């Protein structure tokens, strides 16, 4: 058998043009033998040159001249250079369209059925403890909070929740800043733009000689008829007519001492805009009259504070009947005794 040409083998191996298997086949030796020879002789193998994409494998084309009005010529390529697209790693997941509905695939994130159910339940109200219970886990009280927090911080679970929230944000086009702005508008809205308590004039403020003032003659006649039917004294119209309930009090009025009377006023909700519109939540009409329903501004301000990190929740764990938690510090000897006891009870345990 002919002795292999070491220089030729080294040249082909170090060039890096052929794979190690092809170099071994070319010279009639085993691949393992070639690798041992390279390690023993400390051959340095060059990296295989990167292939040029087909899009840019184009020979230079001749350029043509274009005449100009000043007698000069411009060089112009006969064909525009194609735009090279970015090479995308095939291992990276494709970016979903903002219009696509996100659905949880447990296999994609490595979740079991209970974890997948927890993710779907958490997306409903973003309450980890409630989602933990609805998912079917059996824990109560502080243990439920601790267990739900551990499950929520699981890398696979948190990644699935994060992807779901990102998809929801793309779908609704709502960012954290938008939500914060909504809460801030509710917290700082002026309730007087919806309803007001006004101090307005009484019936005597603008009457002649501060006497009772009527709206018009019709009102006076109706009051006179009611008094006659009830056999009461007929009222007088010495104060005149033209009472306007929207006027300010007369500071010299002896009846109300310039304070007027209190009257509630409800603005037309069709004209509400901006923060007042967000604060307004409807009306309720009952036996006590009309009631305007508004969103809770204190809760809105609390949400803003939580978003900005001003409020931090702290959970305290206590023992039985509110007492301290019993703690036991074990020594290495205690662990050795426990291990020996287990080995005696389970002799077949490896």
Automatic annotation (TrEMBL):
Highest taxon of source: Bacteria
Compositional bias (Basic residues): 40-50
Region Disordered, residue ranges: 40-77
InterPro entries: Terminase_Gp1_N_sf (IPR038713), Terminase_ssu (IPR005335)
GO biological process, one term: chromosome organization
A Pfam family this chain is assigned to: Terminase_2
Name by which UniProt lists this protein: Terminase small subunit
